[in-house]
TrEMBL record:
This is Response regulator. InterPro entries: Bact_response_regulator, CheY-like_superfamily, Sig_transdc_resp-reg_receiver. PANTHER family: CHEMOTAXIS TWO-COMPONENT RESPONSE REGULATOR (PTHR44591:SF25), STRESS RESPONSE REGULATOR PROTEIN 1 (PTHR44591). It comes from Halocynthiibacter halioticoli. GO terms for biological process: phosphorelay signal transduction system.
């Protein structure tokens, strides 16, 4: 059965694919993190749609109603909490709203905005991803019978990291004011958490939390240089 046939027939979920028949909108600006979510959705049976900003997500939501929305807390045109609050206030409400971030300190803000749950990056196991959605589905939408516990970990294509790096360099090339530098630092922190690069993640997180002022151009350039070096080493390996 191909993807189009699955879409048309809307088959029931199975123990190995408990999200079969569901549509998940991923609101995420990182290609690497999006690739991880795409693999998790496909392995779970869910259809996936992606938006890379608040504006793009709102366009998607004017066209169709997903079963679940997973929202990154740091987006190029604002906080994911804005979209979460909007989704929570609309009737009928989207079935499941999940926030995600590499920074666990954003969880209270996400929940206060109306998120049903929070996924800390990196999200790599099928079971954790599936349970985050299934735990908040209405009873009538729950898959019947027992589910298999799957501890397999997914590994996104490292080429997606290069796409993220190209995005950072493109934003810098067009000029970066204080708000943009703060966004880029947050974006690199997200990449570092998703790629499990804890030293780089700590460095980025320190720039975000160490001062009330946005990171300087020097800080962003130094962080970008560190990220580029790590990606180059990864490519060689």
């Amino acid at each position: 059965m191909d993807d189009l046939e699955c879409f048309m027939t809307n088959p029931p979920p199975t123990p190995t694919r408990p999200l079969l028949g569901l549509t998940v909108l991923i609101v995420e600006d990182s290609r690497y993190a999006s690739e991880a979510m795409r693999m998790l959705c496909l392995r779970s049976g869910a259809r996936i749609r992606r938006a890379d900003s608040l504006a793009s997500a709102r366009k998607h939501l004017r066209v169709y109603r997903p079963t679940a929305v997973i929202v990154d807390m740091g987006l190029p045109d604002g906080s994911g909490a804005e979209l979460i609050a909007e989704l929570s206030a609309v009737a009928p409400r989207v079935g499941v709203i999940i926030a995600t971030s590499g920074d666990p300190a954003t969880e209270p803000t996400a929940l206060a905005a109306g998120a049903d749950g929070f996924l800390e990056k990196p999200v790599v196991t099928l079971t954790a991803f599936q349970e985050a959605i299934l735990a908040h589905l209405p009873e009538e939408d729950q898959p019947p019978g027992p589910r298999l516990v799957n501890t397999d970990e997914i590994t996104p294509d490292p080429i997606a990291l290069q796409d993220d790096l190209a995005h950072i360099e493109d934003v810098i090339a067009h000029g970066a004011d204080g708000n943009t530098r703060a966004y880029l630092t947050q974006f690199m922190s997200s990449i570092a958490h998703s790629a499990k690069d804890e030293p780089l993640a700590r460095k980025a997180d320190g720039l975000l939390s160490g001062s009330s002022k946005p990171p300087s151009a020097y800080d962003v350039s130094a962080l970008l240089s560190s990220l580029r070096t790590r990606l180059d080493l990864h490519a060689v390996m």
